[in-house]
TrEMBL record:
Record-annotated FAD-binding domain positions: 5-344
PANTHER family given in the database record: BINDING MONOOXYGENASE, PUTATIVE (JCVI)-RELATED (PTHR43004:SF19), TRK SYSTEM POTASSIUM UPTAKE PROTEIN (PTHR43004)
UniProt xrefs under Gene3D superfamilies: 3.30.70.2450, FAD/NAD(P)-binding domain
Keywords: FAD, Flavoprotein
Cofactor(s) required for function per UniProt: FAD
Designated name of the protein: 2-polyprenyl-6-methoxyphenol hydroxylase
Pfam family, one: FAD_binding_3
Length: 508
């Protein structure tokens, strides 16, 4: 158990394990510990968004996750015991991503897959191992750990990543504030087998004057997860709640008949964002840095996005291809998104659970009547998909973003634009710096990229590229996490040289 490593990851949830996988793929020596003695069997996170599946292509995970998951084909609204609207989720983003659907994949199964991939990569999750504290040294950190057998030891690491959840020991040791609040209502989650129109494998949400409840189909029919709220309870009462105590009216209004209860748990939901995501050689990712309501299925996916963002940057610095300043861009890019997400999900959840006449009219009248109309408006469908799928996320104002070419800015996600001549997402499966040109690349650019071992991918111009916002013959420098760093109308290698030099980055 004693020894050193490049990166010590604390917390073996999806965020921590994805970070460890990404680092290991880049040749980084990584350890991952978790205070729990066993992997979790309960899970609240369900949705795997399209952007996560895109990034999972770099780890060879997408196919397995899709095969083991369940595609939700529709989103349904109920009110006053009646089905009011259905919004089709089938191919909702068919021109935007290879993963134009909402995938349901329970977190416990998700974690088992990630842990098996880590084991195959030679990294074992060290269960029952607790971080007692750490000190920062000039060239790394000294972390004090207590193993499952009670013995204490020191791990010397170059960097420390706190992926250890809302009660993060890493965040506590960093001395970073975690401002925000706690929702008054208690959430519950239940895995059930049952029958009724809302047990058809789709997503169903009930809005009425009673407690909020949503049904997430876990398979084609008959199995679902219920997520709902109970009106304000004391902590003692909340801990003692049973499934029989939750609102049967809310569940019954969805037409759900519960035949078997497989699992039930209650929890409080917070809305908080850490004041900083970095302090020296320590970083926060996932719930350790931001927590919010489950509205929109964003939490786990945001943590996985943190992991990919931080992972390639740590790997570059450890390999000597970038200076320490690159690590500052992690907080610069991710903390703003976390704050906007917490604010958005807070407003959505507040509307969904608010009491009073105005809120009642919005939930039970306005939303159910508008939803069928919006479902037929292409712009509305695309906006909804881009927002929930996280494909809309960009880093335009970040320190690694420069230029505009066509409709795309530095900091934008590289759009999916497959043509008969090739799928531009195929090269993105390699987490490396690369240059894309759609049209023709000048010889000077080809020579410059070849001399620096910077992959250059040239795609013959096709109308699909124009539809995606790309500019013919322009140059797009793409980061290892598939975001555009530099967008330039002219495919001039001098622009690339300047971009790397200003930021002290190497193409190697």
């Amino acid at each position: 158990m004693n020894g050193s490593c490049d990166v010590l990851v604390v917390g073996a949830g999806p965020t921590g394990m994805v970070l460890a996988l990404a680092l290991r793929r880049s040749g980084v020596d990584v350890r991952i510990i978790d205070q729990a003695e066993h992997a979790g069997t309960a899970s609240r996170a369900l949705a795997v968004q399209a952007r996560t599946l895109e990034l999972y292509g770099q780890l060879g995970l997408s196919d397995d996750v899709i095969r083991q998951g369940h595609r939700a084909e529709g989103f349904n609204l109920w009110s006053d015991g009646r089905h009011k609207a259905r919004f089709s989720l089938a191919d909702i983003g068919k021109d935007l991503t290879p993963y134009s659907f909402l995938l349901i994949y329970p977190q416990d199964r998700h974690e088992r897959l990630l842990e098996s991939r880590l084991a195959a990569a030679g990294v074992a999750v060290e269960r029952g191992t607790q971080l007692l504290g750490y000190s920062e040294e000039p060239d790394g950190v000294r972390a004090r750990l207590r193993a499952a057998d009670g013995r204490e030891h020191v791990c010397e690491a170059r960097y420390l990543a706190g992926c250890d959840g809302a009660r993060s020991a890493v965040r506590r040791e960093m001395g970073v504030d975690f401002p925000g609040g706690t929702y008054a209502r208690v959430f519950y989650v239940a895995d059930v087998e049952g029958h009724g129109p809302a047990m058809n494998g789709e997503i169903h949400v009930n809005f009425d004057e009673s407690d909020f409840v949503a049904v997430f189909g876990m398979s084609g029919t008959g199995q679902a997860r219920l997520i709902g709220t109970v009106r304000e309870e004391s902590e003692e009462r909340a801990r003692a709640l049973r499934f029989d105590d939750v609102s049967r009216r809310a569940i019954g209004s969805l037409g759900v008949g519960v035949d078997r209860l497989n699992w039930f748990s209650t929890y409080r939901v917070h809305h908080r964002v850490a004041a900083h995501f970095r302090k020296g050689r320590a970083f926060l990712a996932g719930d350790a840095g931001h927590i919010h309501s489950p509205a929109g299925g964003q939490g786990m996916n945001t943590g996985i996005g943190d992991a990919f963002n931080l992972g390639w940057k740590l790997a570059a610095v450890l390999a000597g291809r970038a200076g320490d300043a690159l690590l500052d861009s992690y907080e610069a890019e991710r903390i703003g998104f976390a704050r906007r997400l917490v604010d958005t999900t807070d407003r959505v959840f507040t509307l969904a659970t608010a009491e009073g006449h105005v809120a009642d009219v919005v939930r039970r009248r306005l939303v159910p009547n508008l939803m069928p109309l919006l479902s037929h408006v292409d712009a509305a469908r695309e906006f909804l998909f881009r927002t929930i799928s996280q494909t809309v996320l960009h880093y335009r104002s970040g320190p690694l973003a420069e230029g505009v070419a066509g409709k795309l800015h530095g900091g934008d996600r590289m759009p999916w634009a497959p043509s008969p001549q090739g799928d531009n997402f195929e090269p993105l499966k390699q987490p490396v710096w690369q240059v894309h040109v759609y049209g023709a690349a000048p010889a000077a650019l080809s020579e410059w990229c070849a001399s620096r071992r910077l992959p250059l991918h040239v795609f013959p111009w096709h109308p699909v590229h124009d539809a995606a916002g790309l500019l013919e013959n322009a140059m797009y420098l793409v980061r290892p996490d598939a975001y555009i760093a530099l967008a330039a109308r002219e495919a001039d290698p001098a622009g690339l040289a300047r971009f790397f030099a200003v930021r002290a980055l190497s193409t190697g």
